[in-house]
Amino acid sequence: MLRVGLIGCGFMGSMHANCYKNIAGVEIAAVADIRSEKAAECAKDTNAKIYGDGKDLIAEADVDVIDICLPTFLHTEFALLAMDKVKYLFIEKPVSLTAEEGQALLRKSAETGCLVQIGQVIRFWDEYVELAKTVEAGTYGKVMHASFRRISPRPEWGWKNWLLDPTLSGGAGQDLHIHDVDYVLSLFGEPQKYYSVRNSRGEKNSYVNTLMAYDGFAVGVEGTWGLPTSHPFEATFRVTFEHAVLENAGGKFMRYDKDGAHEIVIEKAALAGDAYAGGNVSDLGGYYNELVYFCDKAAKGEPIEKATLADGVSSLTFLLKELAFEG
Ligand SMILES: NC(=O)c1ccc[n+]([C@@H]2O[C@H](COP(=O)([O-])OP(=O)(O)OC[C@H]3O[C@@H](n4cnc5c(N)ncnc54)[C@H](O)[C@@H]3O)[C@@H](O)[C@H]2O)c1
């Protein structure tokens, strides 16, 4: 059994707990949250030892891997401690608040040999995995242009509302838009040129729109959490290839080509337990897939090759350049 220590049992921690409960050969051996009721919820149906502060879990718990689902401003402090304890560490995205913190994590990982995966979950989301395979194989020819969008109501679920304080979360750019930025960088690398605009009539940190210019094609990436709560969360893309368009929108993944419109149906993993953890997502899909990957690598003692610490730091570094872009 791979023994997991989970630190932070809020929205994302409870999502991860539900995933671990569905992964064979894995047990949640310890959980920590300063809100005891949250820790108890994640420990439900397990024999996990319950801690308050995550530092006590790191100091005392008998675990093989640690998973940090703390607010972003706490990632670095806890990750540096955890890397002295375990060989495999998972850190939710964004990897850290600043690029300097990211560099400190890279140095610590090199020094300790701790292998780190970052929760850049889109790299594991079925439709996005399928798109990446298609781009790589050139199935429908070259990419002509593409658009990625992630739009959400204000995230008001956070502990002490930390998400809405940009000094703690980085705002919509760093917390939400980074998903698509990381994915686009994983597909195409850094653009030759980019132009980024933010801000909407004085409301800072809630809207980002970046146009990335590559050799021969352009990619638009838009993200906001400035919508009213009545508006549903949407994560969509449209990629136009020479011979087809792949579009993921309105709950359907479609291919449009010269023969017509075709729905692409992807077989999802069957999951037990409570697959809804609140917030703005209703599906364990990518979260389950990324943790299956992480646990498999840890159980086999193999290197982490997807959504690595270096990937997370590169994406954060590019994202911070976007947010500082002046035109
Ligand atoms: N991958 C995704 O799609 C996704 C979605 C949402 C959030 N996230 C990321 O997950 C991380 C957590 O976000 P969240 O939405 O779960 O926040 P949250 O506020 O719901 O949960 C954070 C939890 O940490 C606990 N906590 C705070 N200090 C602690 C300490 N010292 N020891 C133990 N517990 C402590 C809080 O009580 C809270 O329950 C953030 O980095 C966020 O950006 C990722």
Question: What would you say this structure looks like, in words?
Answer:
This protein has an 8-stranded mixed beta sheet, covered by helices on one side. The protein has 327 residues and is an alpha/beta fold. It contains 10 helices and 14 strands. The protein folds into 2 domains: 2-120, NAD(P)-binding Rossmann-like Domain (Rossmann fold), CATH 3.40.50.720; 122-269 and 307-324, Dihydrodipicolinate Reductase, domain 2. It is globular, with a radius of gyration of 19 Å. The site of nicotinamide-adenine-dinucleotide has 28 residues, from helix 1.
Give a short synopsis of this structure.
The protein has 327 residues and is α/β, with parallel strands linked by helices.
